[in-house]
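ok, trying the design again with the full structure, not the truncated one.
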């Protein structure tokens, strides 16, 4: 059933409950109005609540007085309080509790003798059984009215709620005998059992037949007007005319004008019930999955079956929901484990990073220390170093001048024009490069000094010698030479650029190049195109 259908049913239940409450209140007001006018001022409003109504009758005094006025001596002894009846107030109960109970008990005995709808004394203490007390009071009223009409022949009726039958089935009372229930169904007083027998000389055969027919008709058309029933019991009437009038009333359905307002209530309730059912059936019919069902009742009956497709579908969906819940629980557990695992990994990673950071810091310190030691070594080698490079000889005389080149930087030459003793000379340098020494070999010995520049040291390298001794060749290399012929200048710059690139993440080096020539006491800038600008003062 969808939500709209469920809401419809809920609304209908509420409306029905409201109608029941209105009906119960209406009957309670009717009872209290009659008691107020019949017994005397009760001291409560004409429209009392359930609590007010039951409190007013709880001492039994009003009930005993009422039944005694209708049937004198019905309650032989009424336990009364000294206050006059007119001053009775429902909320002022001077009598002890056992005296209340005595009045109520005596009233119930008298009511039973008159076949009135009974209730239990405890019903006056419980709001839920107020309807039983109201039934009894209204039956008492009907008895009074019938006695007034029929001069006390004991044939009376009382007002009956359309819900009364249901109410009595729900709460059967010991005093509500079968005959009493039958009287309720007929809306006739229980005293109907006291009608004269068939052979009574007071009633003729025709009148008995008429009475039986009327009883039968009354069973079909309950809640007959009291006057009509009184007329039936009035033996002065012509029985045949009375029967004809009843039949005419029934056939012309003019009886509807004489039924109580409850009949109209029945009709209204039935109409509303039909309308609600029609609405519910329409709502049910729009559901796709029950389109093949004829009515809402069919749908309900089908749904209650274990074999119903909707029932099976619901069962499958319930199982899927359970599976999803289990999967969700399992996923939550796995997620929790992953979180713990991730936290452990993060902790390990943190330790590794911390270790690397410490190692990097140590490495940096080691590098710093290494540089420091490196430059100390350079200092120890000497801040000023003198190297000797022997140019290859271009003639035969000079080829034999180099007699010895020592590893310790010593150079021994021999002047061929002098004797060996006088012509031999020895010179000492930091290192001597022979005629066969290559460019990179010369540079290797100078490279450590050049790198000291990057650590903040000033380094100066210059070549000195006579014309044609090979200064330009050593510092720049031969003109148009290959890479292997690069001189110290090119090789030094290449080395500095490579180191700059290696350390670019930690140190930003700025390299500037200037090239000048000092010739004849004149300094010329070799990188400037204009010759006039090349000379410095
Ligand atoms: N080590 C060497 N190996 C081969 N050739 C050399 C070497 N040194 C110098 N030369 C050659 O000797 C010649 C003169 O050399 P270089 O021009 O370098 O002399 P220099 O000292 O610069 O002369 P200057 O002072 O007049 O400029 C060049 O032709 C050069 O190629």
């Amino acid at each position: 059933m969808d939500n709209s259908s469920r809401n419809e049913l809920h609304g209908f239940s509420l409306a029905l409950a409201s109608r029941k409450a209105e009906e119960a209140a209406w009957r309670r007001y009717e009872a209290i109005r009659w008691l107020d006018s019949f017994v005397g001022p009760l001291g409560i409003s004409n429209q009392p609540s359930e609590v007010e109504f039951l409190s007013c009758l709880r001492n039994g005094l009003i009930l005993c007085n009422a039944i005694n006025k209708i049937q004198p001596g019905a309650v032989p002894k009424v336990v009364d309080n000294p206050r006059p009846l007119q001053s009775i107030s429902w909320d002022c109960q001077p009598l002890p509790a056992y005296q209340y109970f005595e009045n109520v008990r005596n009233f119930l005995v008298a009511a039973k003798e008159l076949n009135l709808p009974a209730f239990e004394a405890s019903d006056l203490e419980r709001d839920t059984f107020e309807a039983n007390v109201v039934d009894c009071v209204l039956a008492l009223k009907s008895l009074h009215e019938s006695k007034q009409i029929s001069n006390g022949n004991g044939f009376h009726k009382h007002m009956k709620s359309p819900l009364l039958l249901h109410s009595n089935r729900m709460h059967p009372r010991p005093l509500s005998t079968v005959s009493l229930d039958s009287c309720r169904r007929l809306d006739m007083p229980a005293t109907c059992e006291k009608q004269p027998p068939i052979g009574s000389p007071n009633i003729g055969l025709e009148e008995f037949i008429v009475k039986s027919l009327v009883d039968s008709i009354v069973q079909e058309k309950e809640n007959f007007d009291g006057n009509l029933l009184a007329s039936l019991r009035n033996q002065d009437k012509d029985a045949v005319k009375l029967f004809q009038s009843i039949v005419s009333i029934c056939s012309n359905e003019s009886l509807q004008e004489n039924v109580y307002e409850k009949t109209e209530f029945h009709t209204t309730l039935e109409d509303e019930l039909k309308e609600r059912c029609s609405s519910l059936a329409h709502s049910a019919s729009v559901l796709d999955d029950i389109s093949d069902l004829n009515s809402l009742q069919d749908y309900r009956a089908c749904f209650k079956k274990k074999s119903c497709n909707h029932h099976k579908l619901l069962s499958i969906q319930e199982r899927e929901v359970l599976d999803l819940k289990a999967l969700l629980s399992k996923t939550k557990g796995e997620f929790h484990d992953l979180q713990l695992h991730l936290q452990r990994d993060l902790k390990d990673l943190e330790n590794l990073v911390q270790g690397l950071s410490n190692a990097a810091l140590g490495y940096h310190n080691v590098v710093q220390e290494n540089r420091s030691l490196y430059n100390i070594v350079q200092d120890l080698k000497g801040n000023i170093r003198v190297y000797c490079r022997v140019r290859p000889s271009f003639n035969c005389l000079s080829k034999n001048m180099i007699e010895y080149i020592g590893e310790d930087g010593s150079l021994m030459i021999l002047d061929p024009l002098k004797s060996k003793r006088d012509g031999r000379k020895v010179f000492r340098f930091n290192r001597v490069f022979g005629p066969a020494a290559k460019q990179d070999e010369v540079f290797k010995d100078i490279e450590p000094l050049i790198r000291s520049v990057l650590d903040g040291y000033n380094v100066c390298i210059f070549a000195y010698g006579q014309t044609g001794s090979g200064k330009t060749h050593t510092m720049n290399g031969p003109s148009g030479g290959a890479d292997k012929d690069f001189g110290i200048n090119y090789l030094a710059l290449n080395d500095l650029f490579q180191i700059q690139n290696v350390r670019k993440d930690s140190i930003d080096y700025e390299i500037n190049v200037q090239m000048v020539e000092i010739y004849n006491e004149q300094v010329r800038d070799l990188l400037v195109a204009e010759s006039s600008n090349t000379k410095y003062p």
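Keeping the full-length input from now on. The chain has 18 helices and eight strands.
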